[in-house]
Amino acid sequence: MKKRLVPASLILVMALGVTERTLPSSAPSGSSLAGKVVIRRDTYGIPHILAETEEAAAFGFGYAQAEDHCLTIARSLVAARGEEAKYFGTGKESDFLIRLYNVREEAERDLRRVSRLYRRIVNAYAMGVNRYIERHRADLPDWIPAFTGADLMAARRAGAVRSAFSQAAVRALRSWDNRVAAESRGAVLFQRFWDTYSRAVEQPYAAPWDPQRPAQTPYGLADTAAALKHLEDAVRWCRQAYGSEDVAWGEVHRFRFGALDLPGDGANGTYGLFRVVRFQELPDGKRVAGRIRENEPPIGFGDAWVLAVEFSRPVRARSILAYGQTTRSASKHSSDQIGLFASHRLRPVWFTEEEIRANLESEYRP
User: Which of 344, 301, 307, 343 is nearest to 323 (CA)?
Assistant: First the structure.
């Protein structure tokens, strides 16, 4: 059969235009493909591939690229498996993202979804790379494995996962302490991501909550592609709104009472936390709980009154009323407990006559 020149850059484009019925029923082996392709190099070392089929051209292309760039290709494909740090000690953030978004599993599904010809061309390229590795095994590092078409599809996905925005998100979330304390960094980013992602998909979890497995569920992300998009969008949003994706929770969330403006902590109870405080966003972009205007009720909601009682002899108790004893802003007692609340402290509760007398401010008849 006469060989024909198939430019490697056109291989995948051609795959889209060839009908499935032109293909034999079984995929060819690497040896059979090697017999259907010739690689010629010009005086600049540029490969020219002559092949009988598109698959053979892909095979030759893979072999020629491995001749020129074996270590680069291998490292890229290993990284797309989420194993860069395993072999090279770098790329932990990329590995984390690739595993978080199930890049390898999604790539295998991608390969099953494409046309039969496209799949065979991708696999043939991998076989060409592998043939070079096999022939030069003694000269190559031990960490280089055999590759598959799924590795190539994973490399395509990994490029998107390792974008600058994704890397920034990983850095912020890896350093997050998984709290919404005033000093917590990464919590604002996570909240924005989760709010937008969970609203956009019907079921956000890969495994929804199961009453038979309450401690193990829910877990995982049902739609990793959508999750990645919303995570990158969350980075952009945080930067635009607050200047950084790792802005401190307390820089955004504030306890305001008159002239007092303190870093806040806590969040809505729907996130599954104990410090339940609901904030209201104001025109300045800050989310606030407190008393903003005189003679108006406070804004926000949550665990503003806490009382801990020890039923001992005598009874002892400590308490806090975040919004103060009075709504009269002229009184110091409208805001004298918010500092304690913000720093997670309780004040003593006085029961006995002796205690009350020792801490008396005024005494009068109505």
Answer: 301
Among 149, 156, 169, 140, residue whose Cα is nearest residue 236: 169
Domains in the chain: ranges and CATH = 4-158 (1.10.439.10), 164-247 (1.10.1400.10), 265-358 (3.60.20.10)
d(CA 104, CA 148): 11
Determine which helix (DSSP H) or strand (DSSP E) holds 39, and give its type and residue range.
strand 37-41
Q: Which of 125-129, 283-287, 328-332 has the lowest mean pLDDT?
A: 328-332
Adjacency order of strands within the sheet including 280-281: 260-263, 253-257, 287-291, 280-281
Look up residue 221 and give its amino acid.
L
What confidence tens digit (pLDDT) does each residue in 63-80 have? 999 999 999 999 999 999
Q: Is the pLDDT of residue 108 over 60?
A: yes
Q: Pairing between strand 280-281 and 277-278?
A: unpaired
Total count of residues recorded for the chain: 366
The DSSP symbol for 20 reads G
Q: Do residues 56 and 39 lie in contact, with contact meaning Cβ atoms separated by under 8 Å?
A: no
Distance set, CA 51 to CA 34, 55, 63, 133 (Å):
9, 8, 13, 21
How would you class 71 by CB atoms within 10 Å of its CB: exposed for 0-12, middle for 13-18, buried for 19 or more?
A: exposed
Q: 128: part of which helix (H) or strand (E)?
A: helix 116-135
pTM: 0.63
Owner of token pair 């790379």: 129
As separate numbers, helices (DSSP H) first and strands (DSSP E) second, the chain gives 14, 14
Q: Which strands sit side by side in the sheet containing 305-310, from one edge to the other?
A: 305-310, 316-321, 347-348
Chain segment 115-131, per-residue pLDDT in tens: 999 999 999 999 999 99
Paired with 260 in beta bridges are 257
Give Cβ neighbours of residue 357 (< 8 Å, ≥ 6 apart): none
- Over residues 139-158, mean pLDDT: 93
What's the whole-number mean pLDDT along residues 50-74?
95
For the chain, give the mean pLDDT. 88
Phi, psi dihedral angles at 319 (to 5 degrees): -155, 170
How far apart CA 117 and CA 121 sit, in angstroms, is 6
